[in-house]
């Protein structure tokens, strides 16, 4: 799922027949392992770039914002604009979507500093992870088996195995290796191979 090569450029697209009050969803990439689909209340980790539909100009790019990390937010609770809450429902980790969002589900008649009034928006989304519920300290403590207030790869693996193998299906190591590599890439900011409580709780409430 490498996103390192993804740069923020204006894509080639045209908007036709935009429907009022409806989010148009186009799946650009669907991963083979689509295990868990997002639903309201899930914690999402995604990159999303926003463009104005009328001329394709970019008004937001999470890859160049702040530290360029994918953004964390809870789905369906208004932490992002309505069109994103709707358009990112039923999505799985690794999936990419293009969304077309009418003004009523975007920034409306007001717009914001970068979005003119009554703008139809186009978003490109790449979802990295979906997990049930916000990252709570309770969940952290549960995963932190040796109680050293840091999560090792072994601890993360055990917790993933408990979750993915609930139904009794055994998955091979490479399945977990890929997920763990992804989790540590996005969460282990100082690269010491452990996820600290601070790194775990990177809760960003973005303006979007
Ligand atoms: Ca630990
Ligand atoms: Ca760390």
TrEMBL record:
Transmembrane segments: none annotated. Pfam families: EF-hand_7 (PF13499), FKBP_C (PF00254). InterPro entries: EF-hand-dom_pair, EF_Hand_1_Ca_BS, EF_hand_dom, PPIase_dom_sf, PPIase_FKBP, PPIase_FKBP_dom. PROSITE patterns: EF_HAND_1, EF_HAND_2, FKBP_PPIASE. Its EC number is 5.2.1.8. Residues 41-131 form the PPIase FKBP-type domain. Residues 131-166 form the EF-hand domain. Keywords: Calcium, Endoplasmic reticulum, Glycoprotein, Isomerase, Metal-binding, Repeat, Rotamase, Signal. The keyword Zinc does not apply. SUPFAM superfamilies: EF-hand (SSF47473), FKBP-like (SSF54534). One of its GO terms (cellular component) is endoplasmic reticulum. GO terms for molecular function: calcium ion binding; peptidyl-prolyl cis-trans isomerase activity. It catalyses: [protein]-peptidylproline (omega=180) = [protein]-peptidylproline (omega=0). This is peptidylprolyl isomerase. It comes from Conger conger.
């Amino acid at each position: 799922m490498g996103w390192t090569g993804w740069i923020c450029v204006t894509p080639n697209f045209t908007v036709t027949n935009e429907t009022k009050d409806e989010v148009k969803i186009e799946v650009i990439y669907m991963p083979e392992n689509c295990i868990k689909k997002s639903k309201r209340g899930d914690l999402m980790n995604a990159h999303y770039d926003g463009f104005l539909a009328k001329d394709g100009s970019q008004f937001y790019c999470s890859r160049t914002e702040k530290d360029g990390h994918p953004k964390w937010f809870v789905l369906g609770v208004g932490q992002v604009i309505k069109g994103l809450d709707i358009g990112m429902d039923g999505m799985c980790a690794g999936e990419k979507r293009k969304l077309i969002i009418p003004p009523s589900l975007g920034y409306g008649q007001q717009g914001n500093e970068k979005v003119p009034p009554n703008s139809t928006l186009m978003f490109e989304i790449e979802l990295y992870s979906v997990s049930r519920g916000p990252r709570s300290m309770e969940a952290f403590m549960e995963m932190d088996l040796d109680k050293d207030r840091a999560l090792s790869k072994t601890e993360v693996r055990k917790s993933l195995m408990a979750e993915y193998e609930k139904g009794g299906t055994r998955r091979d190591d490479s399945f977990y290796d890929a997920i763990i590599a992804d989790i540590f890439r996005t969460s282990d900011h100082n690269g010491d191979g452990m996820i600290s409580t601070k790194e775990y709780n990177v809760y960003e409430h973005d303006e979007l």
